[in-house]
Specification:
- By secondary structure, the chain is α/β, with parallel strands linked by helices.
- It contains 10 helices and 14 strands.
- The strands form 2 sheets. It has an 8-stranded mixed sheet. A 6-stranded mixed sheet has the order 8-7-6-9-11-10, with helices on one face.
- The chain has helices at 27-31, 40-51, 68-71, 104-117, 156-159, 176-187, 211-222, 239-244, 256-260, 273-279; strands at 22-25, 55-59, 80-82, 87-90, 95-99, 122-127, 132-135, 150-152, 166-170, 191-194, 201-206, 229-233, 247-250, 264-265.
- It has 2 domains: 22-99 and 210-279, Rossmann fold (3-Layer(aba) Sandwich), CATH 3.40.50.1000; 104-206, Hypothetical Protein, Haloacid Dehalogenase-like Hydrolase, Chain: A, domain 2.
- A hairpin with a 4-residue loop joins strand 4 (87-90) and strand 5.
- The model is unreliable at 6-18 (pLDDT under 50).
Length: 281
C-alpha cells in the first residue's frame, strides 16, 4: 500500500510514454479540483498527450447530462464512461454507445430490501441513459441542479417503473462507508454497490457493471489492452478500474481503499496530481 505522493520522480514507471496508449481518469476528486474546475495547466497537459496520440477517457460515476461541465473546460472530444460503467458515451455524435441498466423489477426489489434495512434511506434513479433523474420528494437536490432533467417521482413504484443506469441511496444518519456496509447486508450479490463520496451516498448498478467493465468494453472497441492503460482515481468506485488497468495511480487525497490497490500516488487533485504525473512519463 502506497501513501506518499511523489512529484515527477517517476522514471521507474513500468508504462513508458512510448507504450502508453490510453489514460483513463476519474473526475471528482481526481482530475477536477475541489471547486469543480480543471486548471489551465491540466487542460494543456491533456491536450499535449492527446496530440501525441495517447487517448484520454473520462471515467466517472456522474451521469451523461453532467459532462457538459467538463467539456466546457476541456476543448477536447473526450469519450466518457459514465454512471460507474453503466454508460459509454461518444461526445462527438452525442451518442450512447452502450448502456447496462437495472431492470425495473430488480430496482423495486432492491429498494424494498433497503427500506427495511436503512430506515432513513431515500432513493433516486438515473434514467434515459443518464440524461434524466427521478427522485423521491425527500431526496436532497443541489440548488444549481437542472430542474428540466431532474424531477420528483410520484411514488416509489413510479421511481422503479423504468430501467435505470444507476440507483442512488442516501442516508442522513450514516456516512458513505457505514451506509455501504448496511446496503451490502441486504443486497450483496443482487447488484453492484459502491460509493464515491463521504456524504452518506451509495451508488447501485447492475451485477457486473463497474468502471472496469465499462472501460474494458471501450478499450476493446478502440483496440487497446489493459496493459497499455494508465488509470487515475481516488474513491472506492475507482477500485475495479484501478485493479484492471496496467498501471494504477491515485491522488494524495484518495480513500484508503483506492490507495490499497494503487501502484503509485501522485499529488492531490487540488495540486494537479494527474497532470504532474503525466509530465513525469
Amino acid at each position: 500500500m502506497l501513501s506518499e505522493p511523489r512529484r515527477l520522480d517517476l522514471r521507474s514507471a513500468q508504462i513508458q510514454s512510448k507504450k502508453l496508449r490510453l489514460v483513463a481518469t476519474d473526475l471528482d476528486g481526481t482530475l477536477l479540483r475541489s471547486d469543480g474546475t480543471i486548471s489551465a495547466h491540466t487542460v494543456e497537459v491533456l491536450g499535449t498527450m492527446s496530440a501525441r496520440g495517447t487517448r484520454i477517457v473520462l471515467v466517472t460515476g456522474r451521469p451523461v447530462r453532467w459532462l457538459s461541465k467538463v467539456y466546457d473546460q476541456v476543448p477536447l472530444p473526450l469519450p466518457a464512461v459514465c454512471a460507474n460503467g453503466a454508460v459509454v458515451y461518444d461526445p462527438v455524435n452525442d451518442e450512447v454507445l452502450r448502456a447496462d441498466p437495472l431492470a425495473p423489477d430488480l430496482l423495486a426489489d432492491v429498494c424494498e430490501r433497503l427500506r427495511s434495512t436503512v430506515d432513513d434511506a431515500v432513493f433516486a434513479v438515473e434514467v434515459d441513459d443518464g440524461r434524466r433523474m427521478y427522485h423521491e420528494a425527500t431526496y436532497p437536490i443541489w440548488s444549481d441542479a437542472d430542474r428540466r432533467a431532474i424531477r420528483p417521482s410520484g411514488s416509489l413504484a413510479d421511481l422503479c417503473a423504468v430501467p435505470a443506469v444507476k440507483l442512488l441511496v442516501r442516508s442522513e444518519s450514516r456516512d458513505s462507508d457505514a451506509l455501504l456496509t448496511a446496503v451490502l447486508s441486504s443486497v450483496d450479490g443482487l447488484v453492484e454497490v459502491t460509493h464515491s463520496t463521504a456524504t452518506g451516498l451509495v451508488e447501485v448498478s447492475a451485477v457486473g457493471v463497474t468502471k472496469a467493465t465499462g472501460l474494458a468494453w471501450l478499450c476493446e472497441r478502440l483496440g487497446v489492452v489493459a496493459d497499455d492503460v494508465l488509470a487515475f482515481g481516488d474513491m472506492p468506485n475507482d477500485v475495479p478500474m484501478l485493479s484492471w488497468a496496467g498501471r494504477a495511480v491515485v491522488v494524495a487525497n484518495a480513500h484508503p481503499a483506492a490507495k490499497e490497490v494503487a501502484d503509485d500516488v501522485t499529488l492531490s487533485n487540488d495540486d494537479d496530481g494527474v497532470a504532474e504525473y503525466l509530465l513525469g512519463l
